[in-house]
């Protein structure tokens, strides 16, 4: 494929979006874990939990600050690189972003300051409320962003206005409660909880391997294992829900993820392994697990899931229907109020397929006059590149099951083995720290790359969404973002590693005094047990 302005703009947005998402899951997850730790502190009044709250809260603060800086540039790009997209669907896409800024981000940003500087100004309960408001704000930010993104995946509650040449919102509640958006939200925040749990687990394991901050590390592992286990199960279950939704809203994405080139008899098998060959439309050396894809995608044993070849044929039908809508649109634009009713009726009948006609703009300036060859090329364009989706999904899913096994093991050791952890397991926990980020990035790659060639699925092709910029302009800004983000990444890693090496130094005297009293109480219990043993 020729590398042009569209591909370069996509590369720039992918770079900034995936870099930004390095910070989002840890922010979402740590905000909840820190709030849970402070809840235990308020309930028990044990200084060790206050120390844990401050330590992990400081790491949350570093990550939050860098994440905010990287998120701003993403929204800047909508107007810079994707101006036609912003103009075409801004009425719908802009509403959730505005609500996110007014409600969630301001809530989060306001109370972050109180969280860090209000320890000596607020009561315990007041500070706990602040911690939970920060956590709620972090998660609400994700909600509104994912509502906007979910609408791009499944554009409900909106209609095209031929007079303004824009998509306009017709049902705010349909956009808000879009099933794709809701499933994506819970799946994404659960992935954030897993990310934070693995991070806390790994850092705590590092402390135990060096025999530092042992009590803090053990308690942190107990919290991370319990929270992470529930979250890991949630990620897998909600991933299943996303597959079910894709069967209705994004059939081509689901078929590409599975390398399903042709419709399989119901219930379709899932492909556990294989090598997709797009040219031959075949997956070589495929290993199938019977029935699983049918159950995930349709919740039945009798409903078929269409394959890529059949979906291309359906796309061709919709392109031809869209050509009729496009021709009627030209008449509507030219004659406006004088447009014959039959033309208006024709447009209404075929308007749902107008986006498919716009796929032809890649090949001709007059889509309603496209040739048969151009129609077939546009239909084939609806197939994303399969092999990256196929493997990215399997990496993500494999890591998801790895997280379940890891969290289950540490939860068992924390709950039933008095928080004694073998050194090989601790080493594994440290080395696993990057794994949830890899899984999260693979998940976003599947979600966004799998939507191609659409910016808004079935409505606006990516090739039409870009701004009228030169390759040089986009390349310069891309280089600038890469340099800027590289600096931020170095700063982030330097601050996080420095703080982790330094350790939870806050309130050390208070915590150590409590630990001495705690050890005396434990010794007393052991002595009492030893005295009681002969009598038994």
UniProtKB/TrEMBL annotation:
Membrane topology note: Multi-pass membrane protein
A GO MF label: oxidoreductase activity
Location(s), subcellular: Cell inner membrane
Catalytic activity, EC: 1.10.3.-
One protein family per Pfam: Cyt_bd_oxida_I
Record carries keyword Transmembrane: yes
TM stretches of this protein: 20-43, 55-72, 92-117, 129-147, 185-209, 221-239, 391-412, 424-447, 467-491
Keyword annotations: Cell inner membrane, Cell membrane, Electron transport, Heme, Iron, Membrane, Metal-binding, Oxidoreductase, Transmembrane, Transmembrane helix, Transport
PANTHER family linked: CYTOCHROME BD-I UBIQUINOL OXIDASE SUBUNIT 1, CYTOCHROME D UBIQUINOL OXIDASE
Family: Belongs to the cytochrome ubiquinol oxidase subunit 1 family.
Protein name: Cytochrome ubiquinol oxidase subunit I
């Amino acid at each position: 494929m020729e590398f042009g302005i569209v591909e370069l703009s996509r590369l720039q947005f992918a770079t900034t979006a995936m870099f930004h998402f390095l910070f989002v899951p840890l922010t979402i997850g740590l905000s909840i874990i820190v709030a849970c730790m402070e809840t235990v502190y308020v309930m028990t009044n044990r200084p060790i939990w206050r120390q844990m709250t401050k330590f992990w809260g400081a790491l949350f603060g570093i990550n939050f600050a860098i994440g905010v800086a990287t998120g701003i540039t993403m929204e800047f790009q909508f107007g810079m690189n994707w101006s036609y997209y912003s103009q075409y669907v801004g009425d719908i896409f802009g509403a959730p972003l505005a609500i996110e800024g007014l409600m969630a981000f301001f809530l989060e940003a306001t109370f972050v300051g109180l969280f860090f500087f209000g320890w000596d100004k607020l009561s315990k309960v007041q500070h706990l409320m602040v911690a939970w408001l920060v956590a709620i704000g972090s998660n609400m930010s994700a909600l509104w962003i994912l509502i906007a993104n979910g609408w791009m995946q499944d554009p409900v509650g909106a209609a095209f206005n031929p007079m303004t040449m824009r998509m306009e919102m017709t049902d705010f509640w349909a956009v808000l409660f879009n099933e794709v958006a809701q499933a994506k939200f819970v799946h994404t925040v659960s992935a954030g909880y897993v990310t934070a749990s693995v991070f806390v687990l790994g850092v705590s394991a590092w402390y135990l391997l060096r025999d530092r901050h042992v009590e803090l590390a053990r308690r942190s592992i107990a919290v991370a294992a319990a929270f992470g286990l529930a979250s890991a199960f949630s990620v897998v279950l909600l991933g299943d829900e996303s597959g079910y939704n894709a069967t209705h809203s994004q059939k081509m994405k689901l078929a590409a993820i599975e390398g399903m080139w042709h419709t399989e008899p119901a219930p379709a098998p899932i492909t556990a392994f294989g090598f997709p060959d797009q040219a031959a439309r075949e997956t070589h050396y495929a290993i199938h697990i019977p029935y699983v894809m049918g159950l995930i995608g349709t919740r039945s044993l009798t409903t078929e899931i269409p394959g890529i070849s059949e979906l291309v044929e359906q796309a061709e039908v919709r392109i031809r229907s869209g050509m009729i809508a496009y021709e009627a649109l030209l008449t509507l634009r030219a004659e406006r109020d004088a447009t014959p009713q039959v033309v208006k009726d024709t447009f209404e009948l075929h308007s749902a397929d107008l986006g498919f006609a716009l796929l032809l703009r890649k090949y001709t300036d007059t889509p309603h006059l496209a040739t048969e060859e151009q129609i077939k090329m546009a239909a084939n364009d609806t197939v994303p590149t399969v092999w990256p989706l196929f493997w990215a999904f399997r990496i993500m899913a494999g890591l998801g099951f790895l997280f379940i096994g890891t969290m289950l093991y540490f939860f068992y050791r924390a709950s039933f083995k008095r928080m004694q952890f073998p050194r090989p397991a601790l080493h594994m926990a440290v080395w696993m720290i990057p794994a949830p980020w890899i899984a999260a990035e693979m998940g976003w790659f599947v979600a966004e790359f799998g939507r191609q060639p659409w910016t808004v699925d079935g409505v606006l092709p990516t090739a039409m969404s870009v701004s009228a910029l030169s390759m040089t302009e986009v390349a310069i800004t891309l280089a600038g973002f890469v340099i800027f983000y590289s600096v931020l990444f170095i700063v982030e890693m330097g601050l996080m590693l420095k703080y982790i090496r330094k350790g939870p130094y806050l309130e050390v005297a208070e915590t150590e005094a409590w630990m001495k009293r705690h050890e005396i109480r434990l010794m007393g219990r052991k002595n009492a047990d030893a005295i009681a043993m002969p009598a038994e």
